[in-house]
Design a protein that fits this description.
heterodimer, A: mainly beta, three-stranded antiparallel β-sheet, B: mainly beta, 1 helix, 5% helix, 40% strand
Chain lengths: 54, 157
Amino acid sequence: MDDSLLEHRAGEIENDNELTTWVEYWLDEELVHRSVHVTLKKVPTFAGGDTASF
Amino acid sequence: MATSFLSELMLGQHQLGASTIVSRGSLTAPTTDTLKAALFLASATINAATTAYSTTGEVTGTGYTAGGVTVTNATAPTSTNSSATAGVGYWTPSASFVYTSVTLATAFDCVLVYNSTQSNKAISVHTFGSQTITAGTFTLTMPSNTTTTALLRLATT
Protein backbone atom coordinates (compact mmCIF):
# COMPACT_ATOMS: atom_id res chain seq x y z
CA MET A 1 0.00 0.00 0.00
CA ASP A 2 1.16 3.48 -0.76
CA ASP A 3 1.72 5.06 2.66
CA SER A 4 1.15 8.48 1.16
CA LEU A 5 -2.53 7.58 0.94
CA LEU A 6 -2.73 7.50 4.72
CA GLU A 7 -3.77 10.57 6.63
CA HIS A 8 -1.98 10.96 9.94
CA ARG A 9 -3.74 12.45 12.93
CA ALA A 10 -2.46 12.78 16.49
CA GLY A 11 -3.57 14.32 19.73
CA GLU A 12 -2.79 14.82 23.39
CA ILE A 13 -4.72 15.38 26.59
CA GLU A 14 -3.20 16.22 29.94
CA ASN A 15 -4.90 16.66 33.28
CA ASP A 16 -4.17 15.94 36.94
CA ASN A 17 -4.61 12.21 36.44
CA GLU A 18 -2.98 11.40 33.14
CA LEU A 19 -1.01 12.42 30.10
CA THR A 20 -2.51 10.74 27.07
CA THR A 21 -1.29 10.80 23.49
CA TRP A 22 -2.76 9.04 20.48
CA VAL A 23 -1.89 8.43 16.87
CA GLU A 24 -4.37 7.63 14.13
CA TYR A 25 -4.06 6.71 10.47
CA TRP A 26 -7.02 7.16 8.13
CA LEU A 27 -7.51 5.73 4.66
CA ASP A 28 -10.35 7.12 2.57
CA GLU A 29 -12.08 8.44 5.71
CA GLU A 30 -11.79 5.04 7.40
CA LEU A 31 -9.83 4.66 10.63
CA VAL A 32 -7.30 1.90 10.02
CA HIS A 33 -4.99 2.40 12.99
CA ARG A 34 -5.31 3.96 16.42
CA SER A 35 -2.75 3.57 19.19
CA VAL A 36 -2.94 5.23 22.60
CA HIS A 37 -0.34 5.86 25.30
CA VAL A 38 -1.65 6.77 28.76
CA THR A 39 0.77 7.83 31.48
CA LEU A 40 -0.81 7.74 34.92
CA LYS A 41 0.19 10.72 37.01
CA LYS A 42 -2.04 10.44 40.03
CA VAL A 43 -4.40 7.72 41.10
CA PRO A 44 -8.02 8.91 41.10
CA THR A 45 -9.53 9.20 44.53
CA PHE A 46 -12.22 6.56 44.11
CA ALA A 47 -9.86 4.02 42.65
CA GLY A 48 -8.56 2.65 45.89
CA GLY A 49 -4.94 3.56 45.21
CA ASP A 50 -5.35 6.84 47.00
CA THR A 51 -3.70 7.41 50.32
CA ALA A 52 -5.55 5.72 53.13
CA SER A 53 -5.39 7.20 56.58
CA PHE A 54 -5.76 5.15 59.71
CA MET B 1 1.66 2.83 63.71
CA ALA B 2 5.01 1.57 62.56
CA THR B 3 5.67 2.73 59.01
CA SER B 4 7.46 -0.52 58.27
CA PHE B 5 4.16 -2.32 58.87
CA LEU B 6 2.68 -0.68 55.76
CA SER B 7 5.06 -2.22 53.27
CA GLU B 8 5.14 -5.46 55.27
CA LEU B 9 1.40 -5.75 54.68
CA MET B 10 2.04 -5.66 50.95
CA LEU B 11 4.82 -8.18 51.39
CA GLY B 12 2.53 -10.56 53.26
CA GLN B 13 4.70 -10.62 56.39
CA HIS B 14 1.84 -10.39 58.91
CA GLN B 15 -1.16 -12.63 59.41
CA LEU B 16 -3.50 -11.19 62.00
CA GLY B 17 -6.31 -13.65 61.45
CA ALA B 18 -7.06 -17.05 60.03
CA SER B 19 -6.93 -17.00 56.25
CA THR B 20 -7.00 -19.45 53.41
CA ILE B 21 -4.59 -18.71 50.59
CA VAL B 22 -3.08 -20.50 47.64
CA SER B 23 0.27 -21.96 48.67
CA ARG B 24 3.30 -19.84 47.94
CA GLY B 25 5.62 -22.81 48.26
CA SER B 26 8.06 -22.38 51.10
CA LEU B 27 6.63 -21.25 54.43
CA THR B 28 9.70 -19.19 55.22
CA ALA B 29 10.59 -17.92 51.75
CA PRO B 30 7.31 -17.81 49.84
CA THR B 31 7.23 -16.94 46.17
CA THR B 32 5.90 -13.61 44.90
CA ASP B 33 2.33 -13.71 43.63
CA THR B 34 1.62 -13.11 39.95
CA LEU B 35 -0.38 -9.96 39.31
CA LYS B 36 -2.34 -9.18 36.17
CA ALA B 37 -3.93 -6.09 34.64
CA ALA B 38 -7.25 -6.32 32.80
CA LEU B 39 -9.06 -3.58 30.87
CA PHE B 40 -12.73 -2.83 31.45
CA LEU B 41 -15.38 -1.09 29.40
CA ALA B 42 -16.52 2.40 30.24
CA SER B 43 -19.94 0.88 30.83
CA ALA B 44 -18.65 -1.61 33.41
CA THR B 45 -19.04 -1.21 37.15
CA ILE B 46 -15.53 -1.60 38.47
CA ASN B 47 -14.69 0.32 41.62
CA ALA B 48 -13.53 0.07 45.22
CA ALA B 49 -16.28 -2.48 45.87
CA THR B 50 -14.79 -4.89 43.32
CA THR B 51 -13.40 -7.89 45.19
CA ALA B 52 -12.09 -10.07 42.38
CA TYR B 53 -11.49 -10.17 38.65
CA SER B 54 -14.25 -11.52 36.46
CA THR B 55 -14.88 -11.27 32.75
CA THR B 56 -18.07 -9.26 33.28
CA GLY B 57 -17.53 -5.91 31.63
CA GLU B 58 -14.03 -6.75 30.44
CA VAL B 59 -13.01 -5.58 26.99
CA THR B 60 -13.07 -8.03 24.11
CA GLY B 61 -11.49 -7.74 20.74
CA THR B 62 -8.86 -8.95 18.33
CA GLY B 63 -5.52 -9.57 20.02
CA TYR B 64 -6.80 -9.13 23.57
CA THR B 65 -6.71 -12.13 25.88
CA ALA B 66 -9.27 -12.30 28.67
CA GLY B 67 -7.56 -11.62 31.98
CA GLY B 68 -5.24 -9.02 30.52
CA VAL B 69 -1.47 -8.88 30.76
CA THR B 70 0.95 -9.99 33.46
CA VAL B 71 2.28 -7.18 35.62
CA THR B 72 6.05 -6.82 35.77
CA ASN B 73 7.00 -6.70 39.42
CA ALA B 74 10.73 -6.28 39.89
CA THR B 75 10.62 -3.74 42.72
CA ALA B 76 9.33 -4.83 46.11
CA PRO B 77 7.06 -2.59 48.21
CA THR B 78 8.88 -0.21 50.51
CA SER B 79 8.02 2.31 53.20
CA THR B 80 9.30 5.69 54.24
CA ASN B 81 8.69 7.83 57.30
CA SER B 82 7.29 11.26 56.51
CA SER B 83 7.50 12.42 60.12
CA ALA B 84 8.03 10.98 63.58
CA THR B 85 4.41 9.87 63.62
CA ALA B 86 3.57 9.19 59.99
CA GLY B 87 4.76 7.33 56.95
CA VAL B 88 3.90 5.78 53.63
CA GLY B 89 4.16 2.26 52.26
CA TYR B 90 4.16 2.17 48.48
CA TRP B 91 4.63 0.06 45.38
CA THR B 92 4.52 0.51 41.62
CA PRO B 93 4.86 -2.06 38.83
CA SER B 94 8.27 -1.84 37.24
CA ALA B 95 7.09 -1.71 33.63
CA SER B 96 4.22 -0.33 31.60
CA PHE B 97 1.12 -2.40 30.87
CA VAL B 98 1.23 -2.98 27.11
CA TYR B 99 -1.56 -4.47 25.02
CA THR B 100 0.02 -5.02 21.63
CA SER B 101 -1.73 -5.34 18.26
CA VAL B 102 -5.27 -5.16 19.55
CA THR B 103 -8.56 -3.84 18.29
CA LEU B 104 -10.82 -2.71 21.11
CA ALA B 105 -13.77 -1.07 19.42
CA THR B 106 -15.92 -0.44 22.48
CA ALA B 107 -14.78 2.38 24.73
CA PHE B 108 -12.86 1.38 27.85
CA ASP B 109 -11.65 3.56 30.70
CA CYS B 110 -10.15 1.53 33.50
CA VAL B 111 -7.70 -1.18 34.40
CA LEU B 112 -8.08 -3.66 37.24
CA VAL B 113 -4.90 -4.88 38.89
CA TYR B 114 -5.51 -8.22 40.53
CA ASN B 115 -3.72 -11.17 42.07
CA SER B 116 -4.00 -14.10 39.69
CA THR B 117 -2.16 -16.37 42.11
CA GLN B 118 -4.57 -15.72 44.96
CA SER B 119 -7.92 -16.53 43.35
CA ASN B 120 -7.93 -13.36 41.23
CA LYS B 121 -8.46 -11.12 44.25
CA ALA B 122 -8.73 -7.45 43.33
CA ILE B 123 -5.96 -5.05 44.30
CA SER B 124 -6.78 -1.72 42.68
CA VAL B 125 -8.71 0.01 39.93
CA HIS B 126 -7.27 2.90 37.94
CA THR B 127 -9.24 5.07 35.57
CA PHE B 128 -8.27 7.21 32.60
CA GLY B 129 -10.00 8.96 29.73
CA SER B 130 -12.19 6.70 27.63
CA GLN B 131 -10.34 5.10 24.69
CA THR B 132 -10.67 2.77 21.74
CA ILE B 133 -7.89 1.03 19.83
CA THR B 134 -7.86 0.07 16.15
CA ALA B 135 -5.20 -2.38 15.01
CA GLY B 136 -2.81 -0.69 17.40
CA THR B 137 -1.22 -0.76 20.81
CA PHE B 138 -2.50 0.48 24.14
CA THR B 139 0.23 1.39 26.59
CA LEU B 140 -0.40 2.31 30.20
CA THR B 141 2.72 3.81 31.72
CA MET B 142 3.04 3.75 35.47
CA PRO B 143 3.46 6.82 37.66
CA SER B 144 6.75 7.41 39.42
CA ASN B 145 7.33 5.09 42.35
CA THR B 146 7.37 7.74 45.07
CA THR B 147 5.57 8.29 48.34
CA THR B 148 3.15 10.69 46.66
CA THR B 149 2.61 9.16 43.22
CA ALA B 150 3.14 5.39 43.46
CA LEU B 151 0.38 3.22 42.06
CA LEU B 152 -0.38 1.74 45.49
CA ARG B 153 0.06 3.80 48.63
CA LEU B 154 -0.82 3.12 52.26
CA ALA B 155 -0.20 5.95 54.68
CA THR B 156 -0.49 6.99 58.27
CA THR B 157 -1.03 10.62 59.16
